[in-house]
Amino acid sequence: MALLRCVSWLLVLAVLTGPGARAQTFGPVAPAGETARQQQWLVPSTEPGIPAHALLYRPAGDGPFPLALIAHASTQNALRRAQMPQPSYTALARELVARGYAVLVPERLGHGRTGGPYVEDQGGCEEANYEKAGRATAAQILRALAYMREQPFVAKGGALVVGHSAGGWGALALATQSPHLVSGIIVFAPGRGGHADDVEGRVCAEQRLREAVRIFGRDARLDVTWLVAANDSYFPPSLSRQLADAFTFAGGTAEFRLLPPFSHEGHWLAEQQGGITAVSEALSRARAAVHRVR
Prior knowledge:
The protein is 34% helix and 17% strand. It is of the alpha/beta class. Helix 8 links the parallel strand 8 and strand 9. Helix 5 packs across helix 6.
């Protein structure tokens, strides 16, 4: 009997804590903090039964506020992804909150506490499928946006998407969206395959990267602000300029801005307080675009 009771309790625990139970739990999971009302949330992912961990920041008051979503960087290294701390982008989020945005920073599948399959895997270095990887990232961004648009404190106009590195690459794939869903895109050094073999300046299959960004630009409907620091060793300015030009030549609209060197590695500009003042003008223009659409 004792064994049967033990097995029964294990079955109940599995039901209460398994994927099916987690899928029903969305929204805030902790009280709001004092810094820009930072709060832990769970939001839907593109994988049924696996909610994405996220941080939400909000201005004071009830809103409704225009929404901004920050899409984080990634890595092909499975161990590094599993150990990745929850992305916060606190300085950038506070800057956006000061401009009146509610800001969501969702952790995508295959990373940190969210776990699950790494759906945005680009594949091997020489045969990397950058288009597929970018669209998988974009799908996760859209899933989080769709959920947040249902919240009473979020304005119904298009959202600002700010992407960093692989998150920026996914944001470029969103340039085909309606401005009523996504009103503006700002990307920090977007790309995939940087630091190939952990070598600075080496990028996997650069030609495939150019081909994919042309596809993203071909049907683009939204303007993109493209930012890169002069000392970015993941996607150096010369390559970033080529990618932005390829996006534009295919039909997209991208304002490319080369920023001064930042600290020891410019690729992390988006994550640091010191780099926020360099993008204030872009953030102001993006907010103006949101209010024109609303």
